[in-house]
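Q: How do we represent a protein-ligand complex in a form that can be generated token by token?
A: Start from the inputs.
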Amino acid sequence: MPRTWPRCVNGLVVAPSLLAADFGRLAEAVHGLEGGGADRLHIDVMDGDFVPNFTFGTDTLRALRGETDLPFEVHLMIREPERHLGTFAEAGADAMTVHWEACPHLHRTLTTIRGLGCRAGGALNVSTPAECLYDVLDVMDLALVMTVDPGFGGQSLIPRALAKVAALRREIDAQGVEVELEVDGGVEAHNAALCAQAGATVLVAGTAVFGDPAGPAHGVQRLLEVAAPLR
Ligand code: DX5
Ligand code: ZN
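Then emit the structure tokens for the protein with D-xylitol-5-phosphate bound:
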């Protein structure tokens, strides 16, 4: 069954990050999200070069693809992502987000992702200004603002990054483009409202979801409770 992309340009959704799940029981972790309000699955791909860590590859993506109908948004924290877009699309990605810092030809990379039938996302590291995405918002479906230094889960959200979220919110609205605005890193119940107030429509959460003692579905609901009313 073709998966539809549940674009969220208003309102607010939660994208659980698999990085915080038990790597020995990923299918079980994904099943635990079904019916719990998760809108999509955030899958962090790391190459040990663009970021100092390794995680999932296309084989894991392909294996998980058969376990759930949740859309996969693949966060490519890798160098030269343009070399691997077709492989990730074939493995089951519904959206692919690449980093401005890793793409000298970001406009072309985003249009290539769309050409593969996937939603295209552009991500900014903490020190990269919002303006770096302004000229490609019209060829993307998702703008991702890193609220931690990429590479690891369980870090604390960097509050200053929310000013960048607000700047992108203004620019997206000024351009009148249908681009989701995502925050990624350190999102917890105590700061989710701030993320929503800054203008985010997608909250990526790993620790807050898979670290919730009452289970991942509860973690998702907790974030939606505190943040959704503010969007
Ligand atoms: C970090 C990843 C994030 C991270 C989020 O490089 O891009 O998606 O897994 O995890 P938490 O919510 O635990 O910060
Ligand atoms: Zn991520």
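The chain has a mean pLDDT of 95. The first strand starts at residue 13 and ends at 16.
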